[in-house]
């Protein structure tokens, strides 16, 4: 189902719905990742983390274009957002908050999370866009999903990620929840530049299947 909202926006999940193959080109998935990072970073700068990063909680203004995807992604749900500070203590067990499919291993293990965990969720969304699925798509139990996260780097879905994003994933997993990750934008931009160059920003670069019905 494609949900179109007033103001000519659609949920990010509609992108896979529209795709005839269920996945998208790597450069387009990277553009989505960069758009999500751009949407989340101001939230982190204001001292909050999202904790609920999924394709259902972000919208893209219409028409689909690189400008709208990368620069104008809209956060639709802040119901699980919570305050974050590098001075806070992060060694306590907590109740799980988020979505099993896209949450980080740390979140699934019921540990306190930080900005890095939001960005790990972004990488899972990008991996799903590229491969059409995640390794744990049929798994609903939190503990089993947490165990599968430990082996994510051994999966085809991980190997299909550009090397810049694979390296970023490792750094994010190794970071402390009290850290504010650096060079996240740069990793996505570098991966994009390596594939597309300046032509990325041309509206004509959008795949034909991204045209919305009635437009």
From TrEMBL:
Coiled-coil stretches: none
Domain Protein kinase residues, every copy: 1-192
Classification via InterPro entries: CK1_Ser-Thr_kinase, Kinase-like_dom_sf, Prot_kinase_dom
Protein name: Protein kinase domain-containing protein
Matching Pfam families: Pkinase (PF00069)
Signal sequence, start to end: none
PANTHER family xref list: CASEIN KINASE-RELATED
GO molecular-function terms, A-Z: ATP binding; protein kinase activity
Originating species: Globodera rostochiensis (Golden nematode worm)
């Amino acid at each position: 189902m494609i949900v179109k909202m007033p103001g000519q926006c659609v949920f990010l999940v509609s992108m896979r719905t529209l795709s005839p193959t269920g996945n998208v080109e790597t450069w387009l998935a990277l553009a989505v990742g960069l758009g999500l990072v751009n949407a989340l970073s101001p939230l982190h700068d204001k001292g909050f983390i999202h904790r609920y990063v999924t394709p259902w909680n972000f919208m893209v203004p219409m028409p689909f274009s690189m400008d709208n995807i990368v620069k104008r992604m809209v956060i639709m749900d802040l119901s699980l957002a919570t305050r974050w500070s590098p001075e806070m203590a992060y060694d306590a067990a907590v109740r799980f908050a988020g979505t099993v499919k896209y949450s980080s291993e740390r979140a699934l293990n019921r540990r306190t999370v930080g900005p890095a965990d939001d960005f790990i969720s972004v990488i899972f969304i990008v991996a799903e866009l590229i491969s059409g699925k995640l390794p744990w798509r049929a798994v609903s139990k939190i503990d089993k999903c947490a165990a599968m996260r430990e082996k994510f780097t051994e999966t085809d879905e991980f190997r299909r990620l550009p090397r810049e994003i694979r390296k970023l994933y490792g750094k994010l997993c190794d970071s402390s929840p009290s850290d504010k990750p650096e060079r996240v934008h740069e990793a996505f931009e570098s991966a994009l530049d390596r594939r597309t160059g300046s032509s990325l920003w041309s509206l004509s670069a959008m795949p034909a299947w991204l045209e919305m019905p009635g437009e």
